[in-house]
Amino acid sequence: MDLSLSCRNNREFNTNFFLTFNEFCAIILNNISYFSDISVTSLLADCPLLFNNMIEVRELTKSYGSTIAVDQVSFDAHAGEVLGFLGPNGAGKTTTMRILTCYLSADAGSATVAGYDVFEESVEVRKQIGYLPESAPLYADMGVIEYLNFMTQVRNLPKSERKERIRAVIDICGLEDVIQKDIGELSKGYRQRVGLAQSLIHDPPILILDEPTSGLDPSQIIEIRNLIKNIGQEKLVLFSTHILPEVSATCSRILIINNGKIVANGTPEELASQERGEEIVHITIRGSQESIEAELNELDFVSQWNRVDTDNGIVGYQIHASQGSDAAEALFHVVVKNGWSLTELRQESVDLEDVFLNLTDKEQV
Amino acid sequence: MTNITAILKKEFRSYFNSPIAYIFITFFLGISAWLFFRGFFLVNQAEMRSFFGLMPWIFLFFIPAVTMKLWAEEKKLGTVEILMTLPIRDYEVVIGKYLASFALLTVTVLLSLVLPLSVIYLGNPDGGTLIGGYIGLLLMGGAYIAVGLFASTLTENQIVAFIFGITACFVLLIIGEDIVLFNAPNWLFPIFSYLGLGAHYSSILRGVLDSRDIIYYLSLIGFFLYLSTLSVESRKWR
Fold first, then answer.
1. CA atoms within 13 A on the CB side of A246
2. A230–chain B nearest CA distance, Å
3. Which of A259, A264, A364, B55 is surrounded by the fewest CB atoms within 10 Å?
4. Measured between beta carbons, which residues in chain B are less than 8 angstroms from residue A142?
């Protein structure tokens, strides 16, 4: 494994300033091997879980006719991570997942899953993955148990373990109440759970879920999210969604994809702070408009201000201040010092929604 | 092998989970019994030649109806996405599905053994032609299933798969018929007469189990299973 190479690749598409996990590991490893004469490869072999990139995608490209669905996508993912794949409809999430699960092949680029090449060793790759496609397509004419039993057969589980695994996924996914029924009779939520049970049946190290919470009611969504979080503690979960609160609630890392390109990659906090750059404060003051504006021009932490409304001596402003200036507090003191009265002071939070909208809008222009 | 068996079992059971299998068996037995007994007492001979002679035309409609759902339904429902991301090779799925339809055909044909049993009860038929007829029936049905399976991989619409299947089987059946052969150009004559499904079937019907006919059927089945595998794999072509 060429660590220097993976470092460089990481830096290229990682837009944040923090060290990625891989870079961090690589630096530590290189230091250890420098001082102690142990080769990096033998260190890697000793701690596979920690340093193993479960998924490595390099410049994957796939087009349908003249539309490019996935455009030079590269990313890494390791065990113990819940990776949220975020993007508007038609951004290329599903196509990327289909390539990783060996359902489709790519036009160019490479991808490995658990060390196996997606294009060359596709059967091995498929053994490592549990996959739930969008809207959980299942055989409606089969019973729940019958279906899970079929899955244990085609997944080649040993006969002695089959019952036990079926039991286990029924417990995990809460299917107890419907085991007697046909899949066709189930509600959308239960179908989704059967789909999830199917993807977990062979206890795979990697779980790929395409919009696992679409069409569920709020309490079911929370259940599925908790399930994903739990599973993600030791396995790698890669799931796609276009619902924003979902990623901040569940993911340890987010990939935002738009028009087939990865436009952001980082933890929810990193992405939010990266986007923020400056603080935005809303303030409404009762006082004379001229003197307030004169004062605003004086303040060095205010980079820009807009008057948003004027109403009977009350003036509202949106103020852009440099980051880390505690603008809200400073503004409060300014107001007090000048003897104006403060009617509203509110710090506008930059959340993932803005990040998402910004990144996806920019690309479309 | 275990993969093929798992697919075979699943598909076979799904025939009986839905009305398809029951409709197929009932209609097939009903129509063949009617066709059989209609002429049987008129001719007054203890033989089933007329029954076997009609079978290529009856299968022409029944078998594409059995095979049309095999792939088209999976594509339509999207279940193909789970199926093809399981650690199974594409050809294993193709063979498993083929064998499931073939098993249904075998069950149906075995049930229709009531007819020859009644012939044996009523008279003294030629055992060779009876056994030959049934082997021919299974081989011809097997070839139709392979063609129908291939038709089903081409589309996600079951009706389209059905029509494709009938058309392809029909073409295979009639290119060996005299009416086509006499109008075909001379150089096509030997090719058509070899490829035609009917001629091989009628020679088996005479009770002559020629290895050439068996090889013809097996290679036809193999060829269409290969085409089906290619068609299934075509989603991954670059």
1. 27
2. 23
3. A364
4. 10, 13-14, 17
